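$ fold --in a.seq
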Amino acid sequence: MSIKIGINGMGRIGKCVLLQLINDNSVKIGAINAVNLKLEELEDYLNYDSAHKTQKVQIEILNEDTFKIGRHEIKLLCNRDAEKLDWGDCDYLIDATGAFLTKDKCKLHNAKYVVMSAPPKDETETFIFGANHEKYNGEKIISGSSCTTNCMAPMVKLLRDNFEIKNCNFITIHSATASQYTIDVCKKTSRTNRSVINNIIPHSTGASKSIINIFPELEGKIYGTSVRVPTMNCSLLDFNVELEGENVSLDKIEELINNSELNGKVYGINNKNLVSTDFMSTRTPTIFDKKASMEMGPGKLKMLLWYDNEWSYSTQLIRLVKHMYHFNTMIKDKYNMKNLELTGKNVVARFDFNVAMNNGEIVDDFRIASAIPTIKYILSQNPNRLILTSHFGRPKNKETEFSLQFMIPILEKYLETTIDFLPEGLANNTIHKLNTGVYLLENLRYYTAETLYNPEETSDNNSVRIYRELGDVFIIDAFGCLHREHMSICDINYSGKEYGYGELIEKELVNLNTILSNKNEKVLGIIGGAKIQDKLPFIHKLRKIPNTRLFIAGGLAKHYEQYYDNVMVMRYGVGNYSMDDEPQELTLVDVKNSDANFYDISDINMQVLMEEVLKSDIIFWNGPLGVIEHEIYKKGSIRLATFLQNIKNKKIIIGGGETATLFNKDNNDIYVSTGGGALLDYIQNGTNMYGLKAFTKL
C-alpha cells in the first residue's frame, strides 16, 4: 500500500520534497498547492534549478487542474485559504509554506496528519528522524522543526547516549534563504534588510529552543546563533561541546557514527578537503567533517557538521512521514488482533500465567485476569480452535509442580467455557488430538527450545516445528515476557504465519507512553528494590524525561552514587546489620561507606515522599521501598500504597512485580502493570525489545 501524500507550498522545500518523491514507489502524491504556478509552467519549474541538478521530468496535463508525473496523478491546487483546499485522499500533508505553525491553523487542512516544516509557535510535538522519531505515538499534527535542528539533534542524541553533556554552543553558518534581499531595502528593522549578496549577516535561530524541546535536560546548557552568508545552498554547523570525562576524542565520535545503524542515512563522515557545494543534494543531515573539527582539551570538542539545508532537510521530512505511516498503519493497526481475521481460524495465543504461588495456592491472579479480555475477544470471533500457551516457573526436568494443569478450573471460571488440557505439550501426539474448542498447552518451559531459542536452527528443531503447526494465527499478549528472546515470543518473525498483539499489550504501552512522551505534566518516579545494576540504566532514562523528579528508595538507596538535581535519595531508613536483628531507626548519612543495611523507609523520608506525590501530576512506582517479603520491613511500602489509593486527580502507574501485589486492581484511577523486567526494558529500549520487534519491522 502506498502512502498518500500532499504538499502545501512549492517553494524551496516543497519543490525538493516533490522531486524526491517522484520516483519513490512507496508513496502516492495526490495533490500540491502552489498559488504562483500554472500547470503549463510546472514542468520547467521542476526541471531547471540553480542548486539541484536532478533527472528531467515530463508532465502530462490531464485536465485543467490535474497532471501526471510518472506513476503519480496529481491535482494542482491554488489557494491560500486552507479551508478551501481539497486534499482528497491525501492522508499525510507536508506543509512547506511556513505559514501554518500552530495546531489550530493546521487543523484547517482537510488531512488526517500534518507535518509542519518549521519549529511550531505553540506546544505542537516536535519529532526529528534520528533524534526522537521513535517517540512518535500517533499524533495527528507534528513539527519537523528546522534544517539546522535536523543537523544538530542527531549529533546531540549520539553524544547524550554515550556521554554526559556539560554544555554546548553553536553557530550555524547558513546559506541565504528566500526571505532575504539581493540589495539593501528599508522594509526591515533588523540586519536582514541588507543585501545577502555582499554581506555576512548575523541572524537569529530557533535551533537551540528546538533542541531543548527535544532534549529538555539540556536547558541552560545549550546556546546558539546564526549567520547568513552569500551562498545559494548548503550550510555548516560549528558545534562546540564539553562532555563529562577526558577520554573523548574525534576518533571516538567517528567510531560511534560508524557503529550507528543510522550511519549513511542520518550520519555521514567527511575525511576529504571538501567545500560547501560538494554537499549539494546530499540526503544526510549530519555530516561530520573530521578534518575540519578539533579537540580543545579534556572532554572538549569543536565539531563541524555539514548539511544541505534544502535537500537533506526535505529528505528528513519524508523519512518522518514514512515513520508516521509505519507506526499508524504497520504497527498500530496492522498487528492489532482486532484487525486480524480470526473466524474459522486455528488461533494460538501466548499469555503470561506465571502467577505467584504459596503452599499450592495462588497469591495473586492479576496476570490471569488481565488476559481474560483478549481471550474473550478471540472467542467472540468464532475461531475453529484456540490454544492458550504460557510458561510457569523455572522447571529443569518437567517437574509436576510446574505443570499448568492447575490453571484449567481457574480459566474455566473466568471464561465460563470448557477447556481441554494438552499434557504432552510440544509433542507430535498433541497435533493429532486437536479438534475444535479451547485448549491449554502444557508449560512451554518444559522444552529447551523455548528458552534456548535460536532462529537459525529452527528448521531442525522438532518443538519449534510443532509449535508452528498448532495454529494459523498467533497472538501475543504476554507483556511480562516481551523482553525475553524466547521461542513463543520471537518465532512469529520466522514462522510465516499471521500474527498480532492483544489488548493487554496495547494497554501497557499506552500507559507507559504517558510517561515517556510527557512534556508539561509533573512526573514523580519512585524507584525501589535492590538490583542496582538492573535499575541504573532505567533510572538514567527516567531522569531525562521532561519535568521528572525521582525518589530512590529501598536497597537502591544504599548503593546509588550518581546525583542530579532531579534525583532524591532516601537518607533515613529502618534496618540493622542483619535482617534477623531487632529493627531500629538508622541515619543514612554516607551511602557509600555505611556498614548498616537499610530494609525499609523511615517516617521522616515517607513524609518527604508523600509531599512529592502531592506536588506531582503523574506518579510512577517500580520496586518496593523495603523488603516486601518481611512483615516488619514491608510496612513502608504498604503505607505508600494505601496513600496512593486514596488520593484523587493523579495519574498513577504501578510498575508490576512485587509492587503490584500491594494494590487493589479494581481501582480505576491506578494502572497496575503486569510487567517487571519487561517494563524496565521498554522504558529503556522502546520497541527494540525482543517481543516488539516483530510489530515494528516493515
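$ fold --in b.seq
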Amino acid sequence: MESLVKILANKIKYIFGVSGGGLSLSLITELEKRGVKFYPVAHEAAGAIMAGAASGSGETKAAAISIKGPGLANMVPGILLNHYEYRPAITISESYSKDSPFEKMHKRLNHKEVIQVLVKANIDSSNESNINEAIALAETEIPGPIHIELAPQENIFIKKENYNFSAEEEINTILDSIKNTKRPALVLGSVAKRQLKDINWQELKIPVFTTASAKGAINEESDFSAGIITGEIKDLSPEKILVNADLIIAIGLRNTEVVVPHKFDSPLIIFDSVSGRIHRGFNAKEKIMTPDLKNTAEKLLQRLKQKEWGKNLIKNLRDKLDKELLSDFWMPANIFRALNDEKRNNNLTLVLDTGIFCTVGEIVFKAEIPEEFIGSSNGRFMGTAIPTAIGFSIANPDRNVICTAGDGGIRPYFPEIKLAVEENLPIFFILMADSAYGTFSDKAKANNLSERAYKIRNSSWVRAAEAIGCSAHKVKNLEQFINAFEEFSKVKKPMFIEMDFNADKYSLMADNLR
C-alpha cells in the first residue's frame, strides 16, 4: 500500500467515504499525515458523488473509500453518476485478496463483475505502474472513474481506446469548406470545458448552442449564446433556431450528452477527439476526429469569425421564454432570475438536481463561466444535488454554492447536509416543493393512475434541517426569498430554504420548453 499512498498524496487533495477497521482506515490515516483531508459521509454513494464533483473539471482531485462487499455496492450509484458525467474520480475499497480461500464468505462480492461496465480501470494497490496508468486514463478523454482494490487481485483490467483519427488534409478540406456557408451554427459539448478552456467563443457572431453539461463553455449572457440543446424539441426549444442554419458545426456532440439524439434538418459536421458509437443518432454528414482538438478548434474559430447572423432570432426566443416563464411571480423561474442577478457579486455556482425546476433553471440561470454551474446534466440522476454541492464546495472554497432540489431529489442524501454544517460550507440549500414527482404527476392524474406513486405526503424538511444544525426557513414569496439569500450572503454558512408552489402550475411550467 506504500506506493498507493505516495501516488495519491501527490495527486488528490480530498478523500470521502465510510471507513472500516482494516486497510481503509490505515490508508486514510497515512493520507491525512500527508495533507489529504478525509471527510466522513453518511452513505458511501454520497462519498463517490462528492469525489466526482471535486473532480468535475476533468482533473482527478479526490477519491472515495469504502469497505468490501456492501460498502462497494453502496458506492455503485455514485460511481454510476461519475460514469455518466465524465468525472475522473477514484474509488477505493477493501477487498479479499486473490489468495483468500473461497470458503471465507463474510461480505464477499465479486467487485469486478459489479463495476466493470462503470469504470475505466479496476486495479489493485500492489503495482505502482498500474496505478499511475489508471489515474492518467481516468483523465483521458472521455474522462471517467477508476476503482482500486486494497488487496492484490488476479482479474484486474485497464480499458484502452484506440481511435481512428482523420488525416490532416481531410481536416483542412472540411475547414476550408466552411468559408462557403452563410448561416453556420455552432454546438459545443462538454469537451469544450475540458480541452478548449482558452478559446474565446464570445468572439463569434453566430448562434452558439451547448449541451447541458457544457453550460458555461460560452458566456450565456452573450447575445449569440442560443441556449441548451437536449433533443427534446418543443415550441420554445433552442433547436427551433437551428432550422435557419445552412450548416451545423459541433464540437464534442455526443449521444451521451443529450436526452434524444436526432438528425438535424441542416447538414452536420462533428469535430471530436474521440471516435466510435458515441456520435450515433445525429446522422452527421462528416465526422472529423483529431488528437489535437484545440488546434482544430482555433482554426475553426478563425473561419467562423467572418460570419454574422441570428442575433434577432436568439433575442426573440429569449423574449418568448421570459414571457412563458416569468409571468407568474411565485414560480421557480423568478427564483432563478433573482439568483442570476446576484451571481457576479456573490461568486455563485448553481448546482441542480433533476426535475421540472431543473429544465427552468438551466434556461433562466446564465452561466458566464463553467465554474458557475454543475449538475447531473447527462445522467439526469435524481437525488445527487446535495452531495454534488458539498463535494464541489470543498474543492472550490472561494465559491458560494446554490444547491436546488425537488421533492424527490431532496430525499436520498439529505443527512449529508450535516457534513456541510460541520465544515461550515457556504451552501444555500433550496427545496422547490410541489408535494409530488412533478415530472410525471400531470400525466398520472390525467390517466387516473395511483396517487401513491407520485404524490408526496408532508413534503417539508425544515424541521429536519434544523435538527441537524442547519439554519432553515420556509419562504412564501419572492421578497422573503431575497431576504433569506441576503442573510446567507452575509454569514456564508449552510442555510436551508423551503418553498411550496402551486402543484398544477408547477407540473405544466416546462410543457413548451422540452
